[in-house]
Amino acid sequence: MKRKVTFDNYFVTLAEKRVLANEIEKEMIRASVYALDAETSALQRCFTLSVPKIQMLIRPFQQFAATLFDQVDPHSHLDVVNKVEAV
Known about the structure:
Elements: H1 2-57, H2 80-84
């Protein structure tokens, strides 16, 4: 009987250890996701504020972007509407 009680206590302790380890892991994952989300939103705000200032310094012939379209107007970067927003 004493042996059965010892084994029961051992298995209960192992189960509690696993449950606590899972809870700690869950909290660590939650904290990591929160930290990544905060970093992403901070970078987004930073880029939102700094891109117009940087765009004003780039000459029109240097502005290009990759696109998925087959046909692109080669003179669209010269359009005044594309420059007015940054200023």
